[in-house]
Structures are given as structure tokens and as C-alpha cells.
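Structure in, sequence out. Go:
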């Protein structure tokens, strides 16, 4: 089986908690979206199809200029049925597997995406069918269900199509992959363990929901962006902060936005 991988950045401007958070100035006049798009414009991903996928809502059309500037393709689909949007991307670009990237994670770890892509190719070459691949923590919780905001996930187009055919539940069509990794008797699901420095950590939150953690994450990013590709060093920095400003806010928002 030939593997046709595409990096799909899921983005929209209509956040209820913090509208347009992904295009607000975040650091050095750059937005979170720009940071994420640039993260995959490196030699490791130069031969990988890259798509910015958003909705058909008029305001989201403004995202096209970000896709164009970063040399990404631009795709628009259903606003609430994100599952159908991803199926549309897969069909249009003839992908077998999609790397799903959430656009509100400024600390997303690109090297771990390369690890997932290489692992998928090895598994397929070894005749191991794989519908879903990501990282998990010590409690075997998929990375997408944690607050870390560091890791991506890979899903097969076939699994997405099968999900759409099986269930009409709105949650499954909004959260795209949950039905797949929760039904391991039906799909071929695989996980890699997270790096040791975050494997047992339940007090770290590097994703953004509201204005307070937007400001806090912008400050943290400014202080750590030069070594943010080193997860162990990033976590050590957070742990070493004497004011406990970062950890206290992270713990507070983990409780507030429990997944």
C-alpha cells in the first residue's frame, strides 16, 4: 500500500471563548497560526502536502492569505461537521492518511510529527494496517484528550469515511477522531508513549482557550521559543519558574477546561 500523507491544519476564527485567537499578534508580530504553519515549512516536511482547512463561513475566508503566504493549499468545508471537512480534504488531495494539527497549540512539537509519520510508513511497509496513530500518556490517555498541546495525530481517510457511515452523533462529527480511537475492535489503532518528561505529567497545559492563558502562553513562548523544540528543556523551564505563575494558571485552566 502506498502512503499518501498530508498535514492538515484545522483552523477557524469563530472561537466562542476568544474570537480570532489564532490570528491575534502573539509574539514578534506573529500569530499562533503563522507560527504553526511555518513549523512545517522545513526540510523534514518539504515533500509532504500541506493544507489549511477551514469552514465555509465568510469570516474564515480571511485565512486564505495565511495559507498562501506559507505555501499551503486552502480548503473550505462544513463549519460544524469537521469530520466531513477532513474527508473532503482527503478526497480532494488523494490522501490515504491525514496528519491532524490543531491551530491553537503554539508549542506544537514538529519533530514528534515527523516521528509519527516515519512510524506510520514503517507500519504500512510491514503490512500493519493503521487507521489511527498518536501518542499516549502513562494512563493510556490519547494526547488529543490531554491539555499538553504538544502532539498531533494521524488518521486514515478510510477510517474517517467509515465513521461518517456509522454514526451521526454530533460529537463524533465535531471531534473527528474520537470514534476511531474509542473503537479499537473496529479500527487499527496504535499509540507511541509520550517522551518521559511529560509521560506522567498532568499539571502542564500549553493550549489556549481564553485571554488570560493567551497572554500567559505568549509570555512563555517569548521566553522559550529558542529551545521550544526541546520538550524536556521546555518542561524544565516551566518547573524552574520561581513565581509559579505558569503552573498555577495551567492547573487552574486544566480544572476549568477538563476534557
Amino acid at each position: 500500500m502506498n502512503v499518501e500523507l498530508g498535514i492538515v491544519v484545522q483552523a477557524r476564527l469563530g472561537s466562542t471563548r476568544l474570537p480570532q485567537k489564532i490570528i491575534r499578534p502573539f509574539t514578534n508580530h506573529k500569530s499562533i497560526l503563522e507560527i504553526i504553519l511555518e513549523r512545517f515549512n522545513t526540510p523534514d516536511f518539504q515533500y509532504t502536502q500541506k493544507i489549511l482547512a477551514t469552514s465555509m463561513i465568510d469570516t474564515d475566508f480571511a485565512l486564505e492569505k495565511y495559507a498562501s503566504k506559507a505555501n499551503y493549499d486552502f480548503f473550505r468545508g462544513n463549519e460544524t461537521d469537521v469530520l466531513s471537512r477532513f474527508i473532503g480534504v482527503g478526497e480532494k488531495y488523494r490522501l490515504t492518511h491525514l496528519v491532524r494539527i490543531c491551530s491553537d497549540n503554539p508549542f506544537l512539537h514538529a519533530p514528534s510529527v515527523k516521528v509519527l509519520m516515519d512510524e506510520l510508513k514503517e507500519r504500512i511497509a510491514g503490512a500493519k494496517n493503521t487507521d489511527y496513530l498518536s501518542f499516549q500518556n502513562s494512563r493510556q490517555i490519547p494526547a488529543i484528550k490531554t491539555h499538553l498541546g504538544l502532539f498531533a495525530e494521524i488518521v486514515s481517510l478510510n477510517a474517517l469515511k467509515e465513521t461518517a457511515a456509522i454514526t451521526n452523533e454530533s460529537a463524533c462529527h465535531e471531534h473527528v477522531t474520537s470514534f476511531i480511537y474509542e473503537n479499537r475492535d473496529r479500527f487499527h489503532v496504535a499509540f507511541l508513549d509520550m517522551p518521559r518528561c511529560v509521560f506522567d505529567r498532568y499539571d502542564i497545559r500549553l493550549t489556549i482557550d481564553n485571554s488570560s492563558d493567551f497572554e500567559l502562553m505568549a509570555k512563555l513562548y517569548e521566553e522559550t521559543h529558542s529551545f521550544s523544540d526541546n520538550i524536556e528543556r521546555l518542561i524544565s523551564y516551566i518547573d524552574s519558574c520561581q513565581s509559579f505563575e505558569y503552573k498555577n494558571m495551567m492547573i487552574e485552566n486544566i480544572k476549568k477546561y477538563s476534557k
